[in-house]
Amino acid sequence: MHFGSTCLILIVLGLGVGCGGDGAASTCPGAGCTCSDTACACVGGADCKSECGADDCSLSCTSDSTCNGNTTGALTLACVSSECKGSGGDASRVSCTASSACDFKLGAESVAACVSSTCKLQVGGAGRVSCSDSSNCNVKCNGDCLTACSGGAECAVTCGDAGSPATACSPGVFACGPC
């Protein structure tokens, strides 16, 4: 299980960071934030935002930043020692590490990794969530999804609008839909 969680985190982090796509509008008014047409990063910034409409976009938030990323396309967001929230469409990738606080709504086939952080996540069908290293995760699945908890992480996983409890497939592995 530890190997799977580590691989998932590497996949999420390996996608790179940047902001925007064709027609994307990105703002970063806080000190420590920088944006250009293709890259947005917030280091110790208070108000880093990425509003990308239907375009795929990415955002990197570190060093006690406050970040918000929103798109109906795929969102790729790395949150390190920061407070991050937002929403992304199908195939989004979110990573929350190093005592971050994260709150995201993500589309189908999205992947989220929460490591030593507090995460509130809503994922669409075929979503995958990994919570590890003393994380506290609250996961709501809309459709079939899988959540893996390891390394002392605490996980609450519910399914659908009714909030039905997830199925425990094996120790630390919860599914909405088949295991």
Quick tags:
179 residues, ten-stranded mixed beta sheet, nine-stranded mixed beta sheet
Protein topology:
Layout: H1 2-13, E1 25-27, E2 33-35, E3 40-43, E4 48-51, E5 57-62, E6 66-70, E7 75-80, E8 83-88, E9 93-97, E10 101-106, E11 111-115, E12 118-123, E13 127-132, E14 136-141, E15 145-149, E16 154-159, E17 164-165, E18 167-170, E19 173-176
Parallel strand pairs: 3-5, 4-6, 5-7, 6-8, 7-9, 8-10, 9-11, 10-12, 11-13, 12-14, 13-15, 14-16
Antiparallel strand pairs: 1-4, 2-3, 15-19, 16-17, 18-19
What does this 3D model show about the protein?
The chain is mainly beta. It has one domain (2-8, 18-176). The protein has one helix and 19 strands. The protein has one helix spanning 2-13, and strands at 25-27, 33-35, 40-43, 48-51, 57-62, 66-70, 75-80, 83-88, 93-97, 101-106, 111-115, 118-123, 127-132, 136-141, 145-149, 154-159, 164-165, 167-170, 173-176. A ten-stranded mixed beta sheet has the order 2-3-5-7-9-11-13-15-19-18, with helices on one face. Strand 18 (167-170) and strand 19 form a beta hairpin. The two termini are 15 Å apart.
